[in-house]
Design goal:
60s Ribosomal Protein L30, Chain: A, 2 domains, 7 helices, five-stranded mixed beta sheet, alpha+beta
Length: about 200
């Protein structure tokens, strides 16, 4: 018993010093990214990664998505999957339709086949401009979140790879003055930026 007390008395200060040293290294770092691994550090600053994404890039043909009513844009580094509201959701709702789930399954498979599990994903929700900005922002977020939840729960994606962003009524692709234009503006975009391969 006495040996156990002596051992405890010796180990407790060592434990405290270790914890304090870790805290000190974090406090002395200019940013948490300094403590990240090389791969993580490259991807830590999200804004840098996304600065050069061309959301108006060329349309790509993806045989896996033939007949899925999904527009695919991008290049060797970036892929943007665009699905209009009527494909994924009912009007003014944020619950995925059964047909929308089928589309997401095809998109998820395509992402896996083209990224090998690497890269970052942003799910962006867009609306038309009929309701208030706050309402549209909330609806865009709820829809993007529904897609993210499906990707992580059913698509096999790590939640650390995905970030949800609501654009609301920002960045319309068509005019909001017509029903057809508003329908085009109500959409979700899944944007995938592949992590550069180390040489």
């Amino acid at each position: 018993m006495k040996n156990l007390q002596i051992l405890t008395a010796f180990l407790f200060p060592v434990f405290l010093f270790s914890c304090s040293d870790t805290g000190q290294r974090i406090e002395n770092a200019d940013s948490v990214s300094e403590m990240a691994t090389v791969d993580t550090a490259v991807w830590f600053d999200d804004d840098r990664v996304w600065e050069n994404v061309d959301f108006e890039g060329p349309i790509r043909e993806e045989p896996e998505l033939a007949g899925a009513d999904v527009t695919v844009r991008g290049n060797d580094t970036v892929t943007i999957y665009q699905a209009n509201e009527d494909i994924l959701f009912d009007l003014d709702k944020a619950q995925l339709r059964d047909a929308g789930v089928e589309k997401l399954q095809k998109i998820a498979e395509n992402i896996k086949n083209t990224t090998n599990g690497l890269g970052k994903i942003r799910v962006m929700g867009f609306t038309d401009s009929l309701a208030s900005k706050a309402y549209n922002r909330d609806l865009g977020r709820e829809r993007a979140k529904a897609v993210e939840d499906w990707l992580t729960s059913n698509g096999g994606f790590d939640s650390n790879r995905i970030r949800v962003i609501s654009k609301g009524e920002q960045n319309p692709v068509e005019t909001n003055a017509t029903a057809e234009g508003r329908q085009q503006n109500r959409r979700v975009e899944i944007v995938v930026v592949r992590m550069p391969q180390s040489s």
